[in-house]
């Protein structure tokens, strides 16, 4: 059996059955439901990454897990192993995984509904919709402590205080709230939106592959098809914590963050061991690019966090690296123009106080913006000449204000204070 990494259809998403060729070999992406792995599964994936890949893995901004550096000859046994363990996606051309959940879903004292059950219903009902583009996905948000706003889903379902579900559709300027349904109608209404979108594509009414690219009148038509009631946007919530201890219905959870979401097979195996020693024997992959270990007793939290810190995890919510986002970059990605993670770490030295205040810096190896589809306080996009396009307050898709070398960038970042306006600091004619 040969790997199918050469398949490169538009809108295609890598998975276990369809690995993607990158600069360091094949990338195999696992998308377990809710980002959940048992300790046994996590240990098995770690062993597989060590034996069949280069021992490096990524936790993605959707809470998926990528095994890196797989060789053509080691891919077939890896596929067979993951398929046997139920970790391969279903066959077919649709989305590999239709829903994303908070890693706290089902355990969060602030949640207003049973988000995992709703997500399962949506997977069952909408998973069979013919012609749904592979990249489409739905954020199912129980309204708790980890809002899913940054994941960039096509459709966001958020539990509201009045026992309803608010529906947000992705739009160029952010989420557009298109209405509400009762909890009981949530899965039906979500399915109506998704099947309506697929139908519009089949009928030639749109060529959009993501809801954010759909014309406003068609979005309105989807809202009517789902019989959504008009409603205001749900009230804003504080952004999700990125590291440290978190309260649960019973006990606590430890959120262990990873710089840029990257880790080693040894770290995954170690987390599996901690989950058995201190918790429930479960690991949840977090969209904040970390591992959440639930069921930790209060007295076990400090020793666990101390061990995790020693093993290279970020355990302090004030760590400036949590405000840095970077894709694998050069040489790991064949499309990269710059070594994004190494440059990001260099730049962090020039703006540590900005990062500690929560200013988000996104360094992308190219304009695709895999690591972060949304806006950041400062987005830097690698260019073929090795310099960066600087986009303050925007995303990799927005027009840059300046083109700068990394040395020039560091010179501009060094004197900035948290209150400074980044747009002014990076104003100027593109060179
Ligand atoms: S953003 Fe570009 S360089 Fe970075 S991982 Fe994606 S394709 Fe590669």
UniProtKB/TrEMBL annotation:
For whether the record's keyword set contains Heme, the answer is yes
Q: What is its EC number?
A: 1.14.13.83
Q: Where is the Nitrite/Sulfite reductase ferredoxin-like domain?
A: 19-83, 256-309
Principal EC category: oxidoreductase
Q: What are the UniProt keywords, alphabetically? A: 4Fe-4S, Heme, Iron, Iron-sulfur, Metal-binding, Oxidoreductase
* InterPro entries xrefs: Cbl_synth_CobG-like (IPR012798), NIR_SIR_4Fe-4S (IPR051329), NiRdtase/SiRdtase_haem-b_fer (IPR005117), Nit/Sulf_reduc_fer-like_dom_sf (IPR036136), NO2/SO3_Rdtase_4Fe4S_sf (IPR045854), NO2/SO3_Rdtase_FeS/sirohaem_BS (IPR006066)
Annotated Gene Ontology MF terms?
precorrin-3B synthase activity
In terms of NCBIfam families, this protein maps to: CobG (TIGR02435)
Which protein is depicted? Precorrin-3B synthase
Q: Which organism is it from?
A: Microvirga arsenatis
Q: What is the lineage of its organism?
A: Bacteria, Pseudomonadati, Pseudomonadota, Alphaproteobacteria, Hyphomicrobiales
Gene assigned in the entry: cobG
């Amino acid at each position: 059996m040969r790997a199918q990494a050469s398949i490169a259809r538009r809108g295609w998403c890598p998975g276990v059955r369809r690995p993607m060729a990158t600069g360091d070999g094949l990338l195999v992406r696992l998308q377990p439901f809710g980002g959940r792995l048992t300790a046994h599964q996590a240990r098995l994936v770690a062993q597989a990454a060590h034996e069949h890949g280069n021992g490096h893995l990524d936790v993605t901004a959707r809470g998926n897990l990528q095994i890196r550096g797989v060789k053509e000859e080691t891919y077939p046994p890896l596929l067979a192993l993951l398929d046997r363990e139920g970790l391969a996606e279903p066959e077919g051309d649709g989305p590999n995984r239709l829903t994303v959940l908070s890693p706290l879903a089902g355990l969060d004292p602030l949640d207003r509904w049973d988000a995992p059950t709703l997500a399962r219903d949506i997977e069952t009902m909408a998973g069979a919709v013919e012609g749904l583009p592979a990249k489409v996905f739905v954020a199912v948000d129980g309204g708790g402590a980890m809002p899913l706003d940054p994941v960039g889903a096509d459709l966001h379902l958020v539990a509201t205080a009045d026992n309803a579900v608010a529906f947000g559709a992705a739009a160029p300027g952010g989420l557009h709230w298109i209405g509400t349904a009762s909890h009981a109608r949530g899965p039906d209404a979500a399915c109506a939106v998704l099947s309506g979108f697929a139908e519009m594509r089949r009928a030639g009414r749109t060529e959009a592959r993501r809801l954010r690219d759909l014309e406003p009148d068609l979005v309105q038509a989807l809202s009517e098809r789902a019989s959504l009631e008009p409603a205001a946007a749900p009230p804003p919530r504080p952004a999700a914590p990125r590291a440290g201890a978190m309260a649960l219905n019973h006990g606590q959870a430890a959120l262990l963050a990873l710089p840029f979401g990257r880790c080693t097979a040894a770290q995954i195996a170690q987390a599996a061991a901690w989950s058995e020693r201190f918790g429930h024997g479960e690991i949840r992959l977090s969209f904040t690019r970390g591992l959440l270990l639930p069921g930790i007793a209060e007295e076990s939290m400090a020793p666990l966090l101390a061990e995790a810190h020693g093993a290279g995890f970020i355990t302090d919510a004030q760590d400036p690296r949590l405000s840095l986002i970077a894709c694998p970059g050069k040489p790991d990605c064949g499309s990269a123009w710059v070594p994004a993670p190494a440059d990001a770490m260099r730049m962090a030295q020039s703006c540590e106080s900005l990062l500690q205040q929560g200013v988000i810096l996104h360094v992308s190896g190219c304009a695709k913006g895999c690591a972060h589809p949304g806006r950041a306080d400062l987005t830097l996009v690698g260019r073929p000449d090795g310099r960066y396009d600087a986009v303050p307050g925007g995303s990799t898709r927005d027009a840059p204000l300046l083109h700068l070398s990394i040395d020039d960038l560091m010179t501009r970042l060094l004197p900035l204070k948290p209150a400074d306006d980044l747009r002014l600091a990076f104003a100027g004619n593109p060179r």
